[in-house]
Write a structure and sequence with these properties.
heterodimer, A: alpha+beta, 7-stranded antiparallel sheet, 5-stranded antiparallel sheet, B: alpha/beta, D-Maltodextrin-Binding Protein, domain 2, 5-stranded mixed sheet, globular
Chain lengths: 673, 344
């Protein structure tokens, strides 16, 4: 028998595979649903936290600018309302610088610069420059002149042209040696005429520290960019792969030059990342707050997905950003992933172990039961069964198996006894069969002392013994008696009744040579003490060998057929009374016909005409009549063989339902002297 | 004795050779700005030994803003000045006998840039007033180098604008303090892009497409020096031409030299900016194309007429006086054998 791989697996293995599959699907599905939700919520939270930190950082930086802008406006107001008195202005500058420097130590200088020739038609340059010297004291100098034509510089031209204060783009101050941005404020006289500019120089050295504070998670790359995208601070820029090879970004590069570098494959391997970075830069310059994704190649040379958070620093119009590696940003979530996966795998393994143990507890007794069943199947009904306890299904199955084993053992003993009985009966029936056969006359055709006729008699009982009978014997020198009977029912009772009938007719025929008398006498005898209400159809006929005269009496039997020598058929249709054994007082009459030399008479029982095929159809008598006509010239045994062959062919495959008896007699004419 | 004489003679020859080596004429080339990709050709000529191959000992001197480019030329020493044509004509007008020995820039790199959203697409559009009714403001350099051409152009077309003197950078434009600004296409224009502008957000009017297409950088020597050392001047011009050609052919390698020069003066190198500069500068200079090397007579005449008409100069030199006869023909200038394989 071919079994599939699945079919060869044990119950435990099948259970494990099915349950493991189911659990993987269930746990996996739950995991992904939960993960999706957790990620979604956590990402929102992470993003919000990061953005809030950036916004808070931007607000803090913004606050650090406020004292400067406030002081600058105050100074401009004072200068607008006063004449350019150098002594007074120096005091004012000293006081203002000391005061603001105390609040914001990054303020390193303040200047007052007048429009050329505004102070005096004879004096082109007037610029007071107050700074904190190395000793922490305020030092004030006049620095304007042909060597420093301040009126040409952006910090002077821009507020003059725009008429409003502003923070200049960050620049590297060669005098101070540090990055600076200047808050420049124009001041005007009462008529609105432009007088000059105040400049508050802010060192950007300390701002990097403030920028770092915006990194909420401690692993980002914070940066501060100016109004026009220039990097003011980018303390961890070196994390970007090869950045130093291409630029030193602070005060030198902008977000957009970085984007250009990315567009040609520097810092990024993807062609559109430069445009993404450019888009981020434009958002920052527009003073917006938010986040965006971009890919960067970091120190290890691998490109990573980065999330860029940004928020405006409103006072100078700058923007604070923090770049986080998305993988690090969601590092906590990834740890959660690992924990959930480890837990799920662990739970799955434990469940499989538990299932294996449980299933084996069930399957082990079943395996033993299967082995016991094999032994029992081999004939050993005393095969030991597994010992089980408790009331579970396996225990009940084992108990049921034990009871089945016990009952099977009893049934086999009973069957053996029955078989012995049956064999005994069959043996007895075999004896009875031989006895019954012995009751029938010996077939020795042609009879050596009766050349006047030929004879063939056949009796095929349906069972070991049957109820049909036939007989023929010589009554006197020129007469022969022919008898065929069919006892009702089958088997042993019919055989016993047949034996009685056969015995009676032998003894009574010697006294009653006339068939009618013989039948009448037989009926009386058989009807006596017939408690079982059995009966026998009976045909008896006496043939005169010299003349061919045939006297007969038919007691409820099938009408015999006579095939004439001229290929015609006669049927001895007359019935002269009911079957024997039914009514002791029944009256019987007789019939007469004459056989001519060459005529063949066939006496048969209903086992021939009522033979059934497999579908229950009856053979009938037509085929027998045809054979009789066709074979009228043949010897009786040939005719009998043909009829039995036709019956056998008709009933092919079907069990013989009744005893079949044929007695065929061919009259040859009187013996020649 | 023979051996002693041989050693003596060989030693003498060696000393003469070393003396000849150390006697290589020392030149200074004055470059008009801090180190940047504009001067890549000079760096290549110096770093790859092209000057030396021509028998010259050349020092490159970067000047600061406000320095007198031609001051050193007056010293009588071997000095060459890399200067825009307009500046050279102005100093010539003031008596400095500057002679062009090689013309590097073939055309003007000056752009007038406005916001595309302002509606300014050509010079005449600047006549339209601002929203507040005031005149348009245009930032133009106040230097003799590059401020002249835009001013002459605006004057000729009588454009009614307020010219705001531009000292440096593009902040005036970024802050929207001016409606248009003059920039160099290889330098300040990129600063605008670096500040977040897209190209399509800027309207560019090229002076090279106007009658004020003044060729820019050239190399100048004093006429007296040229007369006394014509061979050295020719070699100098040839070496510079060769450096320019090599820099143009292998810009990445030339950028490496630019970087070293910038960092040598503690400057900050920005790859994107310098890449833009070297690419754009050599589009204008194009040392592999015809016209490089020799200042075209018609261009010279155009520039001098414009300067005279604009009263920028009182007198103009004759072309033959202003340009050296031996000015280098770039097509004929050979590449030094050592550099035929490129810069790597």
């Amino acid at each position: 028998m071919n079994l599939s791989v699945w079919g060869k697996l044990g119950i435990a293995a099948k259970q494990n595979i099915l349950l493991a599959s189911l659990l993987v699907v269930l746990i996996g599905g739950c995991f992904w649903m939960i993960r999706d939700q957790v990620y979604s919520m956590a990402n929102v939270s992470i993003d919000r936290t990061a953005l809030l930190a950036v916004q808070s950082g931007a607000a803090r930086i913004n606050e650090s600018f406020s004292p400067i802008t406030a002081a600058a406006q105050e100074l401009a107001m004072v200068l607008s309302a006063s004449q350019p008195d150098e002594a007074m202005q120096k005091k004012l500058l000293t006081r203002t610088l000391e005061k603001v420097h105390e609040i914001n130590p990054s303020l390193c200088a303040i200047s007052i610069a007048y429009e050329p020739y505004r102070v005096s038609p004879h004096r082109k340059y007037y610029m007071l420059y107050a700074q904190i010297d190395a000793a922490g004291k305020v030092r004030i100098d006049q620095i304007g002149g042909p060597d420093y034509p301040y009126e040409k510089y952006d910090w002077f031209v821009l507020p003059r042209t725009l008429g409003k204060p502003l923070w200049t783009e960050p620049y590297f101050d060669t005098f101070a040696g540090v990055g600076m941005s200047t808050y420049t404020t124009p001041f005007f006289d009462a008529s609105g005429k432009f007088l000059g500019i105040t400049g508050f120089d802010l060192s950007l050295t300390e701002i990097a520290r403030q920028v770092r504070a915006a990194d909420a998670y401690g692993h980002g790359m914070p940066c501060l960019v100016s109004r026009f995208g220039r990097f003011v601070a980018f303390p961890d820029a070196s994390k970007i792969d090869n950045l130093a090879e291409f630029t030193d970004p602070v005060l030198n590069s902008t977000v957009f030059s970085m984007a250009d570098a990315m567009n040609i494959g520097v810092f990024s391997n993807r062609s559109n990342d430069g445009e993404l970075m450019r888009g981020i830069g434009r958002e920052m310059l527009a003073g917006r707050s938010g986040s965006a994704l971009v890919n960067l190649v970091l120190e290890k040379g691998t490109q990573v997905r980065e999330r860029f958070f940004f928020a405006p620093v409103k006072n100078p119009g700058w923007s604070l950003g923090v770049i986080y590696t998305e993988k690090e940003l969601s590092g906590g979530l990834r740890r959660l992933d690992r924990y959930i996966i480890l837990f799920s795998v662990g739970a799955l393994l434990l469940m499989l172990i538990a299932i294996t143990v449980t299933v084996r507890r069930v399957s082990r007794p079943l395996t033993k039961l299967a082995t016991a069943a094999d032994v029992i199947g081999g004939g050993d009904f005393n095969a030991p069964l597994p010992e089980v306890s408790g009331g579970d299904e396996v225990s009940r199955l084992t108990e049921a198996f034990r009871r089945m084993q016990s009952k099977l053992s009893g049934s086999i003993a009973c069957l053996e006894e029955t078989t012995r009985q049956r064999e005994k009966i069959e043996s007895e029936l075999e004896v009875a069969h031989h006895i019954q056969r012995a009751l029938l006359p010996e077939m020795l055709p042609p009879l050596p002392n009766a050349p006047e006729f030929s004879l063939c008699a056949v009796l095929n009982p349906a069972r070991m013994v049957g109820g049909d009978l036939y007989d023929f014997f010589k009554l006197d020198d020129h007469r022969y008696l022919f008898v065929v009977g069919d006892v009702s029912g089958k088997g042993v009772p019919a055989a016993l009744f047949m034996a009685i009938t056969q015995t009676l007719q032998r003894s009574e025929a010697e006294r009653f040579a006339d068939p009618v008398k013989l039948v009448t006498r037989m009926n009386k005898l058989l009807s006596r003490s017939n408690e079982s209400m059995m009966f026998v159809t009976y045909f008896a006929g006496v043939l005169d060998l010299a003349s061919g005269d045939f006297d007969y009496c038919n007691a409820g039997h099938n009408p015999p057929l006579i095939a004439r020598g001229d290929h015609t058929l006669d049927v001895l249709t007359g019935r002269h009374g009911m079957a024997l054994g039914v009514d002791a007082d029944a009256v019987y009459q007789g019939g007469h016909t004459r056989l001519k030399p060459g005529d063949t008479m066939l006496i048969y029982t209903d086992g021939v005409s009522e033979a059934e095929d497999t579908s229950g159809r009856l053979f009938g008598i037509n085929e027998v009549e045809k054979i009789m006509i066709r074979r009228s010239a043949a010897l009786p045994d040939i005719i009998a063989d043909d009829i039995l062959g036709a019956v056998a062919k008709f009933t092919s495959g079907a069990e013989q339902s009744d005893d079949i008896t044929l007695l065929a007699v061919k009259y040859n004419g009187p013996a020649k002297a | 004795m023979v051996k002693f004489c041989s050693v003596f003679i060989l030693s003498g020859l060696c000393i003469l050779a070393v003396a000849a080596e150390s006697a290589a004429p020392r030149w200074r080339i004055m470059l008009p700005w801090q180190p940047q990709a504009q001067f890549a050709g000079f760096y290549v000529a110096a770093d790859k030994g092209i000057f030396a191959a021509h028998g010259l000992d050349v020092e490159l001197v970067h000047l600061e803003r406000g320095d007198d480019l031609f001051a050193a030329m007056k010293s009588g020493e071997r000095v060459a000045v890399a200067s825009p044509l307009v500046a050279a004509l102005q100093v010539r007008d003031k008596g400095v006998a500057a002679v062009n020995i090689i013309q590097i820039g073939r055309r003007s790199s000056i752009l007038l840039v406005a916001r595309a959203s302002s509606g300014i697409k050509q010079c005449s559009d600047l006549n339209t007033p601002r929203r507040d009714g005031t005149r348009r403001r245009v930032a133009v350099w106040d230097t003799a180098n590059f401020g002249v051409a835009p001013r002459l152009w605006l004057n000729r077309d009588r454009v009614n604008v307020e010219i705001v003197p531009l000292y440096a950078g593009v902040d005036l434009f970024l802050w929207d303090a001016v409606d248009a600004i003059s920039v160099m296409d290889y330098n300040e224009f990129y600063e605008l892009l670096q500040a977040g502008f897209r190209s399509d957000e800027l309207c560019r009017i090229r002076l090279s497409e106007t009658p004020f297409d003044f060729p820019e950088d050239g190399l100048y020597v004093d006429s007296g020096l040229l007369a006394s050392s014509p061979g050295e001047c020719e070699k100098l011009a040839a070496a510079v031409a060769e450096g320019m050609r090599l820099a143009c052919r292998d810009k990445p390698a030339a950028l490496g030299m630019v970087r070293r020069r910038i960092e040598a003066v503690r400057g900050k190198f920005d790859f994107s900016h310098q890449s833009w500069m070297i690419g754009t500068y050599f589009e204008n200079a194009a040392p592999d194309r015809a016209g490089f090397g020799v200042l075209p007579r018609d261009k010279f005449n155009t520039v001098t007429r414009a300067l005279l008409r604009g009263k920028v100069i009182a007198t103009a030199p004759r072309y033959d006086e202003f340009t050296a006869e031996m000015a280098v023909d770039p097509a004929a200038a050979p590449v030094s054998a050592a550099n035929r394989g490129g810069l790597r």
